[in-house]
Structures are given as C-alpha cells and as structure tokens.
Amino acid sequence: xxxxxxxxxxxxxxxxxxxxxxxxxxxxxxxxxxxxxxxxxxxxxxxxxxxxxxxxxxxxxxxx
Length: 64
Hints:
This protein is of the alpha+beta class. The protein has a domain at 21-64. The protein is built from two helices and two strands. The protein has a two-stranded parallel sheet. Helix 2 links the parallel strand 1 (22-27) and strand 2 (47-52). The model has no long low-confidence stretch (mean pLDDT 90). Keywords: Kinase, Transferase. GO terms for molecular function: ATP binding; NAD binding; NAD+ kinase activity. It holds the Pfam family NAD_kinase. This is NAD(+)/NADH kinase.
C-alpha cells in the first residue's frame, strides 16, 4: 500500500479511503461488487474501475 500512496503523491493525488472519488478494484466481479457494497453510500459521487484478473468476468472488464 505504501507504493500505491507514493505513486499517487507523485501525480498530486491524495489517497482517501474514507471518501474516495475513484475506486480501482483489482480482481474479479466479486471484488468489484464488494467495493460497490463498501462505498454504497457514495455511489453517486465515486467512479469505479474494475480490473479483471480472473477467468470469467462480466463487471470487471479491464484486463491488465
């Protein structure tokens, strides 16, 4: 997590787990659904990006 925070700071971004503007979910559909659930009170203010790393995915459609 330290590397991610450092990388964000290099671009002038702030890591804010409590009130994020963007959530990047790396995993499968379940991981993305968990992120939706975790930030369900912010669905209208938060962008979600799903990076698919499993075999089959419908919601997380970006492949690294």
